[in-house]
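Lecture 7 notes: from sequence to structure.

We start with a single chain of 66 residues. Read the sequence below before looking at the structure.
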Amino acid sequence: MTRARDTRKLASAEELADHLGVPLATLYAWNHRGLGPASIKVGRHLRYRWSEVEAWLDSRTTERAA
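Now the structure, written as tokens:
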């Protein structure tokens, strides 16, 4: 399976926490437990592909009954 190339800048943990409206500590806890969006370790820093964040958000979306 070929993955489409996402050429956007990787998001830092701080940027993603701000984008999601959650504390930075929550993002680190999710990462530690394997619950949040997939992360990439760059040196000692966590980075996130926006396409992975969007896919994770899509997987968390709930449908409301009409």
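The longest strand covers residues 45-48. Keep this in mind for problem set 3.
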